[in-house]
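User: As part of a screening pipeline, I want to sanity-check one entry by hand. Below is the sequence and the SMILES for NAP. Please return the complex as structure tokens so I can compare it with the automated output.
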Amino acid sequence: MRFKLKAVVCVDLNWGIGYRGKLLARIPEDMRLFRRLTLGKTVIMGRGTFESLPAPLEARVNIVLSRSLNANAVLVCRSLDELFLRLEAYPADDVFVIGGEAIYSQLLPHCTQAYVTEIAARFDADRHFADLNQDESWVLRGKSDYKTHHDLRYRFLEYFHNG
Ligand SMILES: NC(=O)c1ccc[n+]([C@@H]2O[C@H](COP(=O)([O-])OP(=O)(O)OC[C@H]3O[C@@H](n4cnc5c(N)ncnc54)[C@H](OP(=O)(O)O)[C@@H]3O)[C@@H](O)[C@H]2O)c1
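Assistant: Here is the complex for your manual check:
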């Protein structure tokens, strides 16, 4: 593949990512990192995540995986095969996988890197990301100090894929 897929995700200590269609928490510095990483790039999301946004993400190419969605404001791909064909044809050197659970789980094997914001708390969650610490093909190569937002502690982790 010519392009490099990278995952960006915010997890809690159980690797939970969402509950009832929403994020578990909103941390401004995490949002800023997400924006800095993805601005001007291509983002891939599932229909569930797309529908949780107020609008397509500005200044980014928005690709939505869905077999049912009809939308003009974004590129819709009906399958992974269609997505990969689209990415081959598209001059995308940095492509970010931004969720949710269904899309992370299918595209993680194709990702070279994962930017993980880890919140040091445990929330009720009905959507999860794979526990990269239990997967030998993923290696933790970077971690920030803990930071705080109100009563939440969090840190930024960077994993690399050996597979
Ligand atoms: N913490 C984070 O960083 C983060 C990031 C993103 C999202 N989230 C959370 O995750 C939740 C949403 O995630 P989700 O797992 O429910 O939904 P999702 O993964 O965003 O989207 C699932 C949908 O994607 C489509 N899809 C999946 N695989 C496909 C394939 N191979 N080909 C074509 N279409 C495919 C299907 O849409 P159709 O049914 O239309 O076919 C499926 O229903 C929310 O709670 C959100 O807040 C958290």
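Points to compare against the pipeline: The chain has a mean pLDDT of 95. The chain has one domain: 4-161.
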